[in-house]
Amino acid sequence: MQYRTLGRTGVQVSALALGAMNFGAIGRTTQDEATALVDAALEAGVNLIDTADWYSGGESEEMVGKALAGRRDDVVLATKATMPMGEDRNRKGGSRRWLVTALEDSLRRLGVDHVDLYQMHRWDPETGDEETLSALTDLQRAGKIRYFGSSTFPAHRIVQAQWAARDLRLGRYVTEQPGYSILQRGVEAHVLPVTEEYGLGVLVWSPLASGWLSGAVRAGRDIATSRSKVLPERFDLSLPVNRARLDAVERLAAVADGAGLTMIQLALGFVTAHPAVTSALIGPRTPDHLRAQLAAADTVLSADVLDAVDEIVAPGVDLAPHEKFDTPPALLDASLRRRR
User: Fold this and answer.
1) d(CA 322, CA 334)
2) What averages of pLDDT result for each successive group of 10 residues across the chain (340 residues)?
3) Is the Cβ–Cβ distance between 246 and 213 less than 8 Å?
4) Would residue 55 show up in a list of annotated catalytic residues for this protein?
5) Do the bridges between strand 201-204 and strand 279-282 make them parallel or antiparallel, or are there none, so unpaired?
6) CA distances to 93, 123, 307 from 184, in Å
7) How far apart are CA 309 and CA 298, in angstroms?
8) What sign results for the dihedral spanned by CA atoms 103, 108, 109, 115?
9) How far apart are CA 103 and CA 114, in angstroms?
10) C-alpha distance from residue 256 to each of 154, 215, 243, 301 (Å)
């Protein structure tokens, strides 16, 4: 297992990190299965575990907490807030009122007195930077979080939050967690240059592109991944975007075969090759999934292989831009780009 420094924190984390989104109802994972996944990941050298309050309504955090009982200090523990947690309109977002409550709820579910990294799951456009950053700074000073970061923030919001922290003399985000894969490379054009400029650690999610790069999706096969059942439109081959993805996958498979790699090794080796990326979050649902992904822990892609990938999906290009979560609101809502 390779280890890298998380931004400028000095904390060493594994190049592959265990994402716990599939723990609980989302991945239909039991506590025993989740504990077995944590056991195997730690044994393989993984030392960063990432979850969120929103995953299965808090069930993921509970499972992570039980799986780590007695060995909490062995891991860098990360969770997130801001996504809706119930029907109450104030149980979401980046307000001080909610973040203080959300963190206490997460600590209780995890069975710990602090988390190492507390991340804002999404940018909350209704809450100012001063409100959120001051709350996070106070929680950090109280010892309940060691560091805080952002997740899926647009590049301009990452910059603005850094400026706000400087001007207001508050703690700053030290990490960003963007979606990034061979098939979704848009962050290379805007987010990753910004994280490098400000020295942020980068934990990338969905490096296997929701299963497209797992090796399970190939021409002539029935598509049967856990994501294909939850998000069937992302695998509907009647849609041009998915036919384009399948064509890219077939070409990538040929590159992997020629290099003696699995598709998973190619996919994970690609994202961890970027100098801005600290860790790739893997989200296994079964021990077999975990073993296949851990096999990429020490994969280093040659320049020839990386060049071949660039020929198939150009740098900075998203093959499915409509699936991004960091798109500026004005690109999605026409009223925001038309003067009233």
Assistant:
1) 15
2) 97 98 93 96 97 96 97 96 95 97 98 98 96 98 98 96 98 98 96 97 96 88 61 84 94 97 97 97 93 94 97 95 79 82
3) no
4) yes
5) parallel
6) 26, 20, 16
7) 19
8) positive
9) 9
10) 32, 10, 20, 10
